Amino acid sequence: MKVRQIMPDVYWSGAIDWDRRLFDSLIPLPDGTSYNAYLIKGTEKTVLLDTVDPSMSYVLLAQLKDIQNIDYIIVHHVEQDHSGSLPIVLEKYKSAKVLISTRGKDMLIDHLHIPQDRIITVEDGETLSLGDKTLRFIYTPWVHWPETMSTYLVEDKILFTCDFFGSHLATNELYARDKSRVYEAAKRYYAEIMMPFRGIIKKNLEKIKDIEISIIAPSHGPLYDEPEFIIEAYEDWTSDKPKNTVVIPYISMHNSTKIMVEYLICSLTQKDIRVERFDLASVDLGKLAMSLVDAATVVVGTPTVLAGPHPNVVYAVYLLNALRPKTRYVSVIGSYGWGGKTLEILKGMLTNLKVELLEPVLVKGLPNEEDLKAIDKLASSIAEKHKEFS
Ligand code: FEO
Question: Looking at the whole model, is its pTM more than 0.90?
């Protein structure tokens, strides 16, 4: 892949990772990803914004083949998919200095062993002249690490945001053209790593509100030359109001829990409540995370095994707690053989969420008519709670 011009003297110089299918050994990447670096040539200074994942250093180096000098390398974020090729680039450009937020300096030394004398910290709001172009640094912390910042190219009105507004999507389209596909990938990305920081992301959105932006250039996925598309999506995802949706992550061993789940879906459907159901025996965790962005209620379906919830349910509920969605209500349904502490264990895992627990329905063996009536009651209770979201 060769460099691609965005504006005169402003270039995309990243790497498209079509084949990557897992990130952080955790997050599924059904559509691959990209690591977007950018090159800006001012009349006096040349700057590289971020690097690429170390597995694709060779792509970046090939793009920089004819670049004789780089004065500065801006590290927006220390995570290795953007900073991992920094040591190689610093080796090639021996006089280049690294510009990073004050919080990022020690992290860069800790994670990549970059020599202290190669690093210059920049303050929030500080500017840097490249001659005919000006860069302004804007701290946008916790998207999704504490040190992250963005850079605004004043003359061209381009905001480089690193992970913020990014999407795990391998495409050779420079700009977001297939809106529904990019929306899906960006929402998945937000759900998987940004959602726990919803409150501070709202503050970051407020911080960039008055900046005139022609292009948002993130470090994953395509750029946005209609910035309001992704900004409005983020405003929706980070808003406090959930939607009239129930997410049901469940697993069933001998069909009893599944019967309860299907009955609940039927009852919720009659009440015009949208449902997203996930069988945890073969779940795409990214899709589950995406569904949690908007859901007002989560109902966990689990059998009792080894005196507690099924281990796959434990994994999903751990993620639910860690991702801190805006969910307001939680309940548990499922079947047990003779006893156990399923409910107590699950309640003890939801320490991060400010949710109301709706009356659980845990039944012995195969659900009977009374048990199904209890599920109808749960559905009615959810419908009552959801009135304000309809
Ligand atoms: Fe794309 Fe947090 O790194």
Answer: yes
